[in-house]
């Protein structure tokens, strides 16, 4: 029988908080059960296993991140939208390291994703922001991949203490965004060497 007060959503949110505190890779059903003061078996009424729990955390984090990005870019275009998008991404990743790791480490199963449109929404947010640079497919996908790689690489290095130079990390981030804006504004007209 499910313990009163526990729901799949509450268990998922608690797991996300635990991920931020101890690291996504350190989430266990036992640790989560202890945080609720229950036996492990009490949680299995709400999640099938550790894998499903991790998938639910990844989906929750992806939805939170998309919400933050959408709010940040609302009413903005061009460089302003790109910078707002990037800052929302970075701020979320640094404030919620365990949740952010989940978005990169786990692809939720179709059962967990059922009813969610977060992945489509994330692509739509990215493409809407990039359209101000007059990009169309396949350049939208290529530019989106460039931005995701740049943002992910930067925040991962920053979170892991990878920037040891005395240069202020925030200023380097801002200059990196300036550079990305220039790259997007001057995107090559066509793919000079298409792959076959």
Automatic annotation (TrEMBL):
Keywords: DNA-binding, Transcription, Transcription regulation. Residues 5-65 form the HTH tetR-type domain. Residues 28-47 bind DNA. The keyword Transcription applies. Signal peptide: none annotated. SUPFAM superfamilies: Homeodomain-like, Tetracyclin repressor-like, C-terminal domain. It comes from the Bacteria. The keyword Transcription applies. One of its GO terms (molecular function) is DNA binding. It holds the Pfam family TetR_N. This is Transcriptional regulator. It comes from Nonomuraea cavernae.
């Amino acid at each position: 029988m499910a313990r009163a007060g526990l729901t799949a959503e509450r268990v998922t949110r608690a797991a996300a908080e635990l991920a931020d505190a101890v690291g996504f890779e350190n989430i266990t059903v036992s640790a989560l059960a202890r945080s609720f003061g229950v036996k492990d078996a009490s949680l299995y009424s709400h999640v099938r296993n550790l894998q499903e729990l991790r998938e639910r955390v990844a989906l929750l984090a992806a939805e939170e991140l998309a919400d933050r990005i959408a709010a940040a870019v609302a009413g903005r275009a061009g460089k302003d939208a790109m910078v707002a998008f990037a800052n929302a991404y970075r701020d979320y990743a640094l404030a919620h390291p365990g949740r952010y790791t989940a978005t990169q480490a786990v692809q939720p199963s179709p059962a967990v994703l059922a009813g969610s449109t977060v992945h489509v929404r994330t692509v739509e947010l990215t493409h809407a922001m990039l359209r101000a640079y007059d990009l169309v497919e396949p350049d939208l996908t290529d530019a989106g991949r460039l931005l995701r790689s740049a943002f992910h690489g930067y925040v991962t290095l920053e979170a892991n203490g990878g920037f040891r130079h005395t240069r202020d990390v925030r200023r380097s981030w801002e200059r990196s965004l300036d550079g990305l804006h220039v790259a997007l504004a001057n995107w090559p007209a066509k793919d000079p060497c298409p792959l076959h």
